[in-house]
# Entry
Amino acid sequence: MSERSPAASSARIPLVGAPLSLPRTPEPPPDVEERALARTDLGSAFELASAELGFAAASWLFVENVAKVGGDAAVRALGDELGTTFSVLDLVVRRWLEGRRRPHVDAGRLRSALHGVRRVLVVGVEAEHLDALARALDPTVRLGLLTYRLQRVDWPRVLANFGDRIEPVDLAEFQGWAGARSGLLTFVYGERHGLVNVLSAFLRVSGPDVRTQFREIIGWDVLGAAPDVYPRYLVETAVSDLTAFVPLAER
Amino acid sequence: MPALVLTSILVLTLALQARFAAYRMMLVLAGAGLSCLCSATFGLGGSRVLLADVPWDVLVLLVALGLLSEAFVEARLFAVLAVRAAELSRASPVGIALVFAVGMYAVSALMNNLTALVLVLPIVLIILRVASASQRQVSWTLGTLLVACNLGGAATPIGDFPAMLLLGRGSMTFSAYLIRALPTTALGLLLLLAVAWVSLRATSARSSGELRAAISRALLGALYRGVRLDTRLLSFVSVVFGGMLLAWTFLPASGPYSADLVGWVGVLVALAIRPAVGERVVRTKVDVEAVLFLLALFVMVGAVRRTGVFSTVAQALVGLPVSPPLQLVMFLVLVGVVTGVFSAGPSMAALLEVAAVLATRLPPHVVYVGLALSVCAGSSLFLTAATSGPLAQSLTERAHLVSESGERVRFGFAEFLPVGVVSFVVIEGVAIGYALLALAWT
# Structure
C-alpha cells in the first residue's frame, strides 16, 4: 500500500457538505491511472452511499466497482484518498488487497438470537443485512428502523426498498417499541478487547434506563475486524452491554 | 375607473406573487378577494357572479390528472423508469441530459410533471453528485430537463394547464391540438437537445468519467434495489388511462361527455382497483395549492374581463397598421415575455381572452397553438416562471452538489438563465415559425 497522507485526506472530505478546496499534499502516484483516480474525489458520493446503504455495504460497493475499472492500484488510491475519513472503507480496502471478498450475509444465527422476540428495533442501516433480516424473520415479527443518523439520509428512499415490512421509528418514540418480547439490534463494526464499534445512535437508545426495557440487545457484526484508523463516525461500547453478539459469517 | 382599478389589482398581485413567492397563496387569494370587493362596488358583479365565470371543468381536469399521476406513482412507475433511464444513459454527462429530457418530455405530455420530477430528480442528482459535476453540467442537465417538461406539457391537451384550458374552454378539440402541438414541440425538443449536446460535450472527456459512471450505476442499483413495479396496478391504471385518451380523442368536445367528465370518471375507475389506496390518494394527494392558485387567478381575470380591458387590448392589437401575421407574431412575443415574468397560469388565463379576439380574424388553431407554444417559451425563460423551477432548485440545494474543483454547485435563477434564454429563443422561434408556416398554408 502506498504511504497515506492523513492531513490531505481528512481536509478534503468533511462530514457533510462540500470538500474543502485545499491544495493536495504532493504525493505523486506512480502511474497515470493512479493520478487520475487520486483526483476522483469520491468523498461526497461515498458519504451519500454510506448514509443510505451503510458503511460496510457502501465500502464493498465502491471497492468492487473501483477494482473493476482500475484494478488494485485504483482500490489502493481509493483507500489513500478516503480511508482516513471512512475507517470502514479503509478496512475493506485492505481486505480486498489481501484477496478477501465481500462476506456472505447469513441471518441464521441472528434469527436464533431473536427467538421469541415479536418486535425488533434496528439501529443503523446496512443494506444487505437489513434485506437478509427482513427475509429471515417471520412476517408476524414487527421490524422498525430508527430514523436517526448523523449523516443526511433520505429515509423514504431507504424504507421504500422494504415495502411496508420495515416501519420508520423516530428517536422520540423508540421506547414504544420496548417490552418483554422486544429486541434492539445494532450493527457492529468489529470487536477488539471486549469493545465493539457502533453508530452513535445506538448509545442514544441504549442507556441504563432503557437497557432493561428490551429483552434482547443484540450486536450484529458486519465487518469481522475493528478498523485500524480512528473510527470517525463510530463510537465504542462494551460487548457486555449486549445480550448477544453475532459475529460475521465469513465465506 | 373600474378597468384601471381591477387591472391594477391583477397586475400588482401577479407582480407581488412572483417577487414574494413565499407568500404566493396569501397574495393571490387576497388579490382575488379584493377583486371581488371592487367588482361588487363598481356594480360589475360580486363573488357570486365571478365564481360563476370560473372554468370549473378545467380545475376538475387538473385534479383528475393529478390523481391519475399519483396512481402511477403508487405503481412505482416513475422510480423504476428513472433507474432504467440512468442505466440507459450510462451515467455519462450527455447521456443523462438526453435520456432524462426525452423521458420527462414523454411523461409530461401525459401527466403531472411535478409528480414525476419529485421522483426523477433525486436520481439525476445522485448521478451528478457522484460525477462531481461542474456548474455548467448541472445547469445544462437540470435546465434541459425542466424545459423538456414544459415542452412535454405543451405537446398534448392534457399535459399542462395552458393546453387544458384550451381544451376545457372548447377553443380546440383534443385531436386538433394534438396533431399540431405534438410535432411542433418535438421539433423544439430536438433543437434544445442539440444545443445541450454541444454545451455538455466538453464535460464528457474526463479522465475519471468511466469510474464515476460505473459507481453511479452501481449506487443507484443498490439504493433502489427493492423498488419493484406493481404490475397489476400499473396494468389496470394504464388500461383506464388508454380508455380516457380514446374518449378524449373521439368523443365530440361539444357533446355531453366533456373532457373533465372523462377525467373525473376515469380517475375514479382507475383508483377503484385499490380502494384503500384510492381513498388515501384522494384525501392526501390533491394539489390544493394549485387549485386555489388557479381559482384566484380566474376570479381576478374574470373581474378584469368584465371591464372590457381584454377586448380593448385585442382591438388595439388588431388595429395596428401591420399585416395580421405580424400582429400575431407581436402577440406571441408579448405572450412569451409576459409568461416569463408572471408564469404560465396567470398569463394564459389573461391572454387567452386576447387570443380569442385574434382567432376571429386568423385561423383559430394557428392562434391557439402559437399561444400555447409561446406560453411554453415564456415558462422556460426564467427559473421562477414554471412551478417545476423552484422545486428543482430546492432539491438541488438539498443534494449538496460539489464540483471536481471543490466548489459548491448551485441551481438558482442565475445558473438557469443561460439555458432559459437559449430555450426561450428556440421555443419562441418554433412558435413563430409554426404560426407563419401555418398561416401560409391555410
Q: What stands out?
A: DSSP finds ten helices and nine strands in chain A. The longest strand of chain A covers residues 179-188. The CA atoms of residues 6 and 84 of chain A lie 6 Å apart.
